[in-house]
Amino acid sequence: MRVVIVGGGIIGCLTACYLKQRGASPVVVEKERMGQESSWAGAGILCPIQPWLYPDEFSHLINASLALYPALRDQLEAATGISIEWQQSGLIAPFFDFDRSDDYHAALNWSARLGWKVESLTPEAAVAQEPMLSRDHLTRALHWPDVAQLRNPRLLKAVRAWMEQLAIPIHEGRDVIHIEEKNNQSISVQTRDGQSLEAEHVLMACGSWSGDLAARIGFQLPVQPVKGQIVLLKDHPGLMKHIVKHESIYFVPRRDGRILAGASLENVGFQTGNTVRVVSKILSDIQRVASGLLDVEIEQQWMGFRPGSPDGMPYLGIVPGFERLWVASGHYRNGVALAPITATAMSQRILTGDADIDLAPFSLQRSMENVQKIGYPV
User: Fold this and answer.
1) Could you tell me the pLDDT band of residue 370, with boundaries at 50, 70 and 90?
2) For 59, 87, 343, 374, which has the most beta carbons within 10 A of its beta carbon?
3) What whole-number distance in Å separates Cα of residue 39 and Cα of residue 72?
């Protein structure tokens, strides 16, 4: 069975690998270069962002995905020799008296309900655990010791090497402009350079560009780009020990001493580049939340476009009105965390019509809830 995957991010490429393992013949088509958009730009936190704001079905999907990561990590490293720099650094969420909202009790309740180990910290205990935290105005904190992270570019490098071993074709620099089913027997993908690819099934996994492609095909898929800007800091390894997640900023410390600080949420279309306003806001939040980092070096900054959805949850499944067109998009701020379960479930659905996990809560026809809480910024 031939499957064309439109989109060369981590979702599309990992799904291609799983399809190939299940006996299919996947082909990946990418408009630019593989993995150079949100899959590359993200921070690699293996934990949902504010999961207590989502329905529990989303948290079950996250739990199922994170449970697959140890095996995926081992498989990638054994097959390619490339470390994805997976590390269990833990996550601390500090709370200050100047916060706009207080999710402390909601986070505790969610953790107990979904089985996430968490401990409550006094200000003194929080600073003892993470000395880079600001002491001023700190009221309490939560610590999830089992939260892990990985390095996105290294994950993509490993997946690409695995794809080459599996002999999966990757067509880069080919922009898909239309997809059309033909008499329920096959489906055709047309690219801007005039080429056509025929297949039994097509999976749209083109991230922030999925909504525009869907409109050209003739259906609605409310996925929009949500721009995020990140500042990269650099100091000696071990300066910051934990992932730190505050309502206005997060920090992700890497093994080599680099620390990611980000990331903005901007509904500005496909406007590229870092801006003075947003970078200044990130630097101000560093001073408020982690004043221990004020003397570290600023190495660089970058940005990316997250594929946002109205309720913050991905679209996974068949496109209504089609027999052979599938979608895996709208993962918003959780694409890397959800990549293993998305690839597993979509490869199962495409090849067998069923999956080990219920994808009904993520269908294109679901009703929208909590839109103003966790959806893309209006």
Assistant:
1) low
2) 343
3) 17
Q: Are 320 and 219 in contact (CB under 8 A)?
A: yes
* SS3 at position 224: strand
> What distance in Å separates the CA atoms of residue 36 and residue 13, rounded to the nearest whole number?
12
Q: What is the pTM of this model?
A: 0.96
Residue 192's nearest CA partner among 176, 168, 173 is: 176
Q: Report the alpha-carbon distance of residue 38 to residue 12 in Å, rounded.
A: 12
Identify which of 208, 145, 156, 203 has the alpha carbon closest to the alpha carbon of residue 336: 156
pLDDT at residue 49, rounded to an integer: 86
Which phi and psi angles does 234 have, rounded to 5°?
-140, 130
What is the rounded distance in angstroms from the CA atom of residue 55 to the CA atom of residue 110? Answer: 10
Cα→Cα distances 92→46, 66, 144, 181, 228, Å: 13, 18, 6, 49, 21
**Digit-coded pLDDT (tens) for 245-272:** 999 999 999 999 999 999 999 999 999 9
Confidence at 137, pLDDT banded by 50, 70, 90: very high
Kindly list the distances between the CA atom of residue 5 and the CA atoms of 13, 51, 164, 327, in Å, as whole numbers in the listed order.
8, 29, 16, 10
Q: Which residue, 287, 276, 275, 274, is CA-closest to 246?
A: 287
Does 2 score more than 90 pLDDT? yes
E strand spans, the chain: 2-6, 25-30, 45-46, 91-96, 119-121, 138-144, 148-149, 170-172, 176-182, 186-191, 196-199, 201-204, 224-234, 243-245, 250-253, 258-262, 297-308, 315-318, 325-329
